[in-house]
Amino acid sequence: MLITGGAGFIGGNFIHYTLKNHPEYKLIVLDKLTYAGNLRTLWSALGDISFVQGDICDRELVDLLVSKSDVIVHFAAESHNDNSLNNPWPFIQTNLVGTATLLEAVRRYDKRFHHISTDEVYGDLPIKSQEKFGEKTRYNPSSPYSSTKAGSDLLVKAWIRSFGIRATLSNCSNNYGPYQHVEKFIPRQITEILEGRKPRVYGTGAQIRDWIHVDDHNSAVHAILKKGRIGELYLIGANGEQNNLTIVQTILELMGHDKNDFEHVNDRPGHDQRYAIDSSKLRRELKWKPHYTNIREGLVATIKWYQENEDWWKPQKAATEQKYKQGGF
């Protein structure tokens, strides 16, 4: 199995999950090691994997690695909305050109391919609605990040239809858990508290996200690899809808602080209001279900990990906060 973006958050956790639960796979890991890739995420696994530092836009390298693989799981992506607003070009290059490079190699060697994507390709939903995203929801991205991920999804679908590649896709809701970069919402709040500062909430904090623990996401990906129908899209979610304000207040409470000990900051431009995933197809067809059905349980485990692994996240923290400050957030 070739895993792209394996030194990132979800990809790194996928590697640990696969080594523990699916030892039948021999893993090749390709990662460019940008700021979001951290080889320390894989330190305990380096003896059990083949790691290659490289770019998914490198045609010769991708061709070589795909030719040696039976299955390709494509996590590699530029994925931070705020960064895409400041500079869209890395998102266009990695998410579009990189995915096309992989698809052409997959087509050439007739390999099994699974594409990891996001619910943000669907845009957002009204906060007070009961509607959820489904496999037939129209794409309506609202940022350079989500639009390039939507474009990568469409490339995969086109290669399935036009060239008959053996591929599946999944769009997942917001992940959280260990090894997540401190630029992201939940680890940023946790590490701000650990460093003695107040968490920050965009606008009113009314925006709703559908949270899923990264291990549940990765168990779903394995279910799709094993039992998913070629050419199909599956939405992955754990019915974890919570607004941003509630998440921050829950983290504060779990870490022994007053739940109102946070600051409001100006809202992010184009901030999506609500995400909600209907994962009934995945559950019905593949008999998948999440382990973490209570967000508090997952947050307790996540907080504990960041408390115990300061040496992993500390080197990222100062530069991340400086970048937020420069962006006015």
What's the gist of this structure?
The chain has eleven helices and twelve strands. The chain is an alpha/beta fold.
Explained architecture:
By secondary structure, the protein is of the alpha/beta class. It has a single domain, classed as 3-Layer(aba) Sandwich (Rossmann fold), CATH 3.40.50.720. The strands form three sheets. The chain has a seven-stranded parallel sheet with strand order 3-2-1-4-5-6-10, sandwiched between helices. A three-stranded mixed sheet has the order 7-9-11. Helix 4 packs parallel to helix 5. The chain starts with a strand and ends with a helix. The mean pLDDT is 95.
What is the topology?
Layout: E1 2-4, H1 9-21, E2 27-31, E3 49-53, H2 59-67, E4 71-74, H3 81-86, H4 89-109, E5 112-118, H5 144-163, E6 166-172, E7 174-176, H6 185-194, E8 200-202, E9 208-213, H7 214-227, E10 233-236, E11 241-243, H8 244-254, E12 263-265, H9 280-286, H10 295-308, H11 310-326
Parallel strand pairs: 1-2, 1-4, 2-3, 4-5, 5-6, 6-10, 7-9, 8-12
Antiparallel strand pairs: 9-11
CATH topology: Rossmann fold
What spatial form do the alpha-carbon principal axes imply? globular
Number of helices: 11
How many β-strand runs?
A: 12
Query: Helix fraction?
Result: 40-55%
Number of domains: 1
Low-pLDDT residue intervals, each spanning 5 or more residues? none
Task: List the keywords.
329 residues, alpha/beta, Rossmann fold, seven-stranded parallel beta sheet, three-stranded mixed beta sheet, 11 helices
